[in-house]
Amino acid sequence: MKFSIFNFQFSKNSPEAGVTLIMAIVLLAAVSLTSFTLSSVILREVESAGLIQDSAPAIAGAYSGGEVGLYILQKNVGSIDLSNQSLSDGGASFDIISDLTDDPLLVTVVDTQNGYINLYDPENYEEQDTGIRSIEVTNNDGRPLKVEIFSWGDGGTAVCGTDNLPSGGTSASVLTCSGLIGPDYRYQIILDVNGTGTSNVSIRAFAADGSSIGSPSASPGFEATGRLGRVNHRIRVNLVE
Questions:
Q1: Which of 141, 143, 149 is nearest to 204 (CA)?
Q2: What is the second-level CATH architecture of the domain 104-213?
Q3: Are 184 and 151 in contact (CB under 8 A)?
Q4: Which residue windows are transmembrane per the record (predicted)?
């Protein structure tokens, strides 16, 4: 930044001296303002260049996270929720946040087609012990329902059910299947509308301590975020069963 030095000479009681001083002050202020503005522009350009430089590694981190999440799901090798996973090149990292379950799971059933709802671990469908020890089916509104619940380990005998679950969202419209016995704690729920029309149903699963366990979502997916410096790039991977 360049500074200019101005020397002023004036005589006492000279009217031109006051005008000259004012003009000099205005000129000095203009020079300082111009220098400050140019410095601000340069700083913004330097900052923008740094953000642009960090964008490519952050994008690469997001897509790497997407590939890692898909691999984990396909191979059933554990949870896809990861944080601060470093890439070997570029200095970026990535996080993965799963969105695989709904609680409650909301389902609309029509009279022309039965509803088939499967409860399992969406990160590892081969895992028999899902932690589920009770299931709750609520007929919120619409037609009455026939409900049957089967274990994946025994598709011939229902572990719980009713021929007529009324609607209304009251205690009478809730079917609770508790005390479920393994070893296979994966379940299929079959919903059949009685009569003509539709039924809106909510489904929840619970562990032995009463805590809720999310049901596999109708629109599962996960988010992967790549990071480098102040740059974040996020993608969503939608999964179709």
A1: 149
A2: Sandwich (2.60)
A3: yes
A4: 20-43
